[in-house]
What we know:
Three copies of one chain form a homotrimer. The first copy, chain A, has 202 residues and is mainly α. The first copy, chain A, has one domain (2-194). Chain A has helices at residues 2-24, 29-51, 62-79, 86-114, 119-140, 153-166, 174-194. In chain A, helix 1 (2-24) packs across helix 3. Chains in contact: A-B, A-C, B-C. The interface between A and C is medium-sized, with 26 and 29 residues.
Amino acid sequence: MVNYIFEIVGTIAFAFSGIKVASQSRYDVFGGFVLAFCVAVGGGTVRDCMLGLPPFWTTSSVYFICTIVAMVIFFALKHGSHLIPNKVNKTIFLTADTIGLALFTIAGTQKAYLNGMPVWVSIGMGCITGVLGGVIRDVFAGLKPTIFSEDFYATASVIGAAVYFAFPYIGFSAEVSSVSGMFTIVILRFLAVRYKWHLPMV
Amino acid sequence: MVNYIFEIVGTIAFAFSGIKVASQSRYDVFGGFVLAFCVAVGGGTVRDCMLGLPPFWTTSSVYFICTIVAMVIFFALKHGSHLIPNKVNKTIFLTADTIGLALFTIAGTQKAYLNGMPVWVSIGMGCITGVLGGVIRDVFAGLKPTIFSEDFYATASVIGAAVYFAFPYIGFSAEVSSVSGMFTIVILRFLAVRYKWHLPMV
Amino acid sequence: MVNYIFEIVGTIAFAFSGIKVASQSRYDVFGGFVLAFCVAVGGGTVRDCMLGLPPFWTTSSVYFICTIVAMVIFFALKHGSHLIPNKVNKTIFLTADTIGLALFTIAGTQKAYLNGMPVWVSIGMGCITGVLGGVIRDVFAGLKPTIFSEDFYATASVIGAAVYFAFPYIGFSAEVSSVSGMFTIVILRFLAVRYKWHLPMV
């Protein structure tokens, strides 16, 4: 149940980030919807193709509805944006996007592992699930993908997935491990943004 | 039979649009061929991967031959371009591209539905089949994809796929519905280009 | 055994080219690693998805380790780059990249053919295996893909794959044909770079 709520929040957040980029790239309303949907389901679709499974979003219309909800929120915020301080706006977006990354990463890791993948492949597929949507968003908008250079994005995703596998070894239950993995991602990203952590450049 | 002719025309049209972009991006002849083939089969390949089927173009060499035909037409037009008024050139291209979009959308919708997908997923996959080739074309050429902001492109595709599903409910046969879906896409696009229809920007 | 060594060299070379582009695009260390891995396995992953097989890199961690080795080499070269003449550096890179292209092309062609694809599809899939990693590299780095316009890249790949199929007809064994295909690619590329061969532009 908690997982389900997180998944909805994550999908809405990812879709929202797609619409935001679409708006900056001067897409029309329908193009914005398509981009938002691609961001929300892109990573998981590639994961499912690699696992030989049907894409997860074909089995439930909840991801479709989440994209519509994200559009409604976007238009509400757009017309009320003068009422909300810019900083609050940014924090809302960062929080939602980070929850999306955290949940999609752990859900993707779990799904790959349950489908027989070894641990390191599962971590990689979790990372793909979490970050590929953002890459697709930037490429489709004609931008250079930011997640490879941005504050700890993919790095936090991989560390969180590793925590998810490490915690059962030190005696934690599957539920605790999965929540710990998500929290690790959320906390790492907030710390990275707050204290301007950067990995050294290659 | 009519479907088959449409499919060939659509494939040639899509391949042709790929070569045109390749020419503008100063690709060499072989690069142009590869790009043209990617545009022609890209959308359907992603659809087939999601459906768990082998890519449609692996079962028949007609798509390969269509790409060669498109290249021959391109070179003929290029060397004879001073003979054809620019406006006629544009109209030929728009017509072919629109027929391609119409046919690929309905064929994709049909294939997804026959493989057990629910209606809304089938419409989505029809849209992917029709428009993703153009997205791949623009991304591979280092351009910002235009289909999300261009005159009614993806929108017409989705409305046509919806017509294809709606018409049997009001008593039309499968054949009539499928042709009606295609006509809807063609007419919508021509009207949109003629009267400069635009969706509001996001 | 020789195949296996070639495969490792090819993977390292492709991963290395990914890190080089990541460095030019100012990625962080982890982003560079991800890009390198995508370049090394991208083409083969798409091929395996189209063949309905699990991605090859999920069955062995050797590709993962090769990517780490490529990073180590990159940092060693970076800090010692003042010791190596620029021209030697370029030759090393070209050689490794070309061996990667040659091996990945023939391995991809073989795998597609063994999975029941007709000859021309196998050649196409071999080409995809060899060149798509480089396309992903450029798109993810926000650059225009170079392989479509660069000296004989995709062209050499297709000609080599064709040699691989043609040689058994004139009496050569499978091993000789496969090595001949690879040599064809290597020699064509070196000649193209040396004598500045270009296909005419489209």
